[in-house]
Write a structure and sequence with these properties.
It contains 7 helices and 26 strands. By secondary structure, the protein is α+β, with helices and mostly antiparallel strands.
């Protein structure tokens, strides 16, 4: 809805929704969420990879199909891997949310079931059109903060779940809301092409600064912010702890947990520091140091930081790594003469599936390979 006046369309859409669904919006008590957890949800949506098929995802809904315009990233595409969820006027389809009245539970389910991908016709008087799949700006904010309620708008969000704050008090994962127009999630202050403004997470059909018509990392200028955007903070947000964790010992390990699919890997112990990459859920990491609730770890040849709340203790007697060797053969059977299927290298961690009857071999699994390795060259990670 950015840079265009959709207020009239919003009013018409709201009137139709009220006619078809007489239940009024009502602020309900929500589960608290930390800034890091909210960011993880936002980036999981922004970076979602999925497969688009024109034969499956470009058939217009039979009802109000003339009010649907497919996002530009699908133009002349037969099939392709897409990143990010397309903009859908009135939509609330994300990793674990769905649009009001939709017969699916998530965006991926919708696409797999043949839903029409997106709708950037923000002047459509019907609001959300059944049969389309995707998410609009307020839906993206609602999904990011895991707000369990009927689909919120840019107006109801700030009335029900966010409290206005001063611009000088704006922090990472607060929002900038222009009621009746657009809403974005604030990442950090900065400049783009010499213009001052804010880097954001948002869902928008606007492409002034590139990206898809949908969810993405984006930018908003100070002139735009000063044209009616209200800084606001989620009522159930929790600031990330600054209490230092115990200093890891030389044999401390952790497993990436409490995330949808991956954790952010940063250059310094701060959500505003540079993003080095992401680390998949379930990855075992050696903990090198700690600082203000963050762990220093090494991953894919880089050393950086991961937020402590996203690291859980490694289950006892479950994972092993090599001991006193740089790599260890994985064999088809519990015998030193059996066929070699692969190797377990230093820095890798395998799942223990069983133990030979004499206890001298472990049945392990790593990177899709399942076989046996000598127990005397393995040690448990606890």
């Amino acid at each position: 809805m950015k840079r265009l006046n959709y207020l009239m369309a919003s009013i018409l859409s709201a009137s139709v929704l009220l006619f078809s669904a007489p239940k009024a919006y009502a602020a309900t008590t929500q589960t608290s969420i930390s800034r890091t957890q909210a960011e993880q949800r936002a980036l999981s949506i922004v970076n979602l990879n999925w497969t688009y098929s024109s034969s499956k995802n470009s058939t217009l809904p039979s009802i109000n199909g003339n009010s649907v315009t497919q996002p530009s990233q699908f133009k002349n595409v037969t099939t392709a891997t897409m990143t990010g969820i397309p903009y859908d006027w009135g939509g609330l389809d994300s990793l674990d949310t769905s649009s009001d009245g939709a017969p699916w539970t998530s965006f991926l389910t919708a696409i797999n079931n043949g839903a029409f991908a997106g709708n950037v016709n923000t002047s459509a008087p019907y609001g959300y059109i059944q049969g389309t799949a995707g998410i609009d700006c307020s839906g993206f904010v609602q999904a990011t903060f895991n707000i369990k309620d009927y689909k919120q708008s840019t107006s109801t969000l700030i009335n029900n779940y966010f409290t206005p704050i001063s611009l000088s008090n704006l922090k990472h994962m607060d929002i900038l809301d222009h009621p009746g127009d657009h809403v974005v999630i604030f990442d950090k202050w900065g400049s783009l092409n010499g213009v001052q403004g804010a880097y954001t997470y948002e869902s928008t059909p606007d492409q002034t600064y590139g990206g898809i018509q949908g969810t993405k990392k984006y930018f908003i200028t100070m002139n735009e912010i000063n044209s009616g955007y209200i800084p606001a903070r989620y009522n159930y947000i929790i600031d990330d702890t600054s209490t230092p964790d115990p200093v890891p010992t030389s044999n401390s390990y952790g497993i990436v947990s409490n995330v949808t699919s991956y954790a952010n890997f940063r250059s310094n112990p701060s959500t505003s520091s540079a993003l080095l990459g992401t680390i998949p859920k379930g990855t075992i990491l050696k903990l090198l140091a700690s600082n203000s609730g963050w762990y220093n770890v090494s991953y894919n040849g880089q050393t950086g930081w991961i937020y402590g709340n996203l690291i859980a203790s490694v289950p006892a007697n479950t994972y092993v790594t090599v001991n006193n060797v740089s790599q260890l053969n994985i064999r088809l059977a519990a015998s030193s003469t059996s066929q070699i299927l692969g190797v377990l290298s230093e820095g890798q961690y395998a799942t223990v599936l069983g133990v030979s009857t004499d206890g001298s071999w472990y049945k392990i699994s790593v990177n899709g390979i399942t076989g046996y390795s000598s127990a005397k060259y393995l040690q448990y990670i606890n």
